User: Fold this.
Amino acid sequence: MHKIAVVPGDGTGPEVVKEGLKVLEAVAQKKGFKYELTDYDLGGERYKKTGELLPDSIVEELRQFNAIYLGAIGHPDVKPGILEKGILLKMRFDLDLYINLRPVKLFKGVETPIKDKGPKDIDYVVVRENTEGLYTGSGGFLKKGTPDEVAIQESINTRKGVERCLRFAFEFCKKRNKDNKLTLCGKTNVLTYSFDLWQRAYNEIAVEYPGIQKDYAHVDAICMWMVKNPEWFDVIVTDNMFGDIITDLAAMTQGGVGVAAGGNINPEGVSMFEPMGGSAPKYTGQNIINPIASVAALQMMLSFLGEDDSAALIEKAIQKVVSEDMQSMAAGRMGQSTSEVGDKLADFIAKA
Ligand code: IPM
Ligand code: MN
Assistant:
């Protein structure tokens, strides 16, 4: 029995989660596994009503689940940063979700803005460190609001934090067994402390993985290559901030945020899975948002729960629906409504 916490969240979050759960039910029927859902109303509405973001008591409850399935967090009436910091980042820190895993896979039939590149060229995974770097909130102001103001934002990189991320990436690369190449993305020419640590740790761990090809790219150069030669990449590992930036670029190359999903992973605890799209207020309630990313997040979740057959079947369903039934991956231009896409996926699974 998989115990799953569901956080539909804000905006279009509930709409895409609904389709994900439709697919979950279909695949559970087909493959015969059991699950139990518990809903949590975390998000902008709850905050507006109660002032609560992610209470510690709920963090404790979340620890008891096998996985967390999230829609989106973000509300037009709430100042930017509050919900992100108070819910999403707090969840990452408190549950120690130290890996942000972002598969970058272009499905057949999905349009990419990259000329002359296709599904065989765009198929890699970014492993982003998810609890350190510039995201720890370390720093502060001096003389705020005066002409002498100083603002300091520090990037925290611990040997332990860097090492566990790198180890995850090496293991993941080995298990994936595609090109067996792990690219460290950094900025060793300028960030001579943080990425010195990253590079030393990388080199030391690499000795334990003779089958993995070593590779390094500066973050600025990798942005060029992700566009010009995405086929060079198998697994990329990087810090929190660079990972945040390059995964948005990567998402665009795989067809946009309507397709891209991510996992916030604690390999030793509970992990959270989410579509990349955000709350998309302007599309909310219209049944036109693309639920594929949310279903791809579900696929990742099932794979982490050990339901590999189910995950593979969901991927097949996604491949079929994006290539045969959908006109575009963009909200409002799919040629299908949100719920129709979910129906088609569930249907494919039921008949598989
Ligand atoms: C992401 C998001 C978050 C981040 C924001 C919403 C805080 O952009 O998951 O990539 O910066 O990590
Ligand atoms: Mn981001």
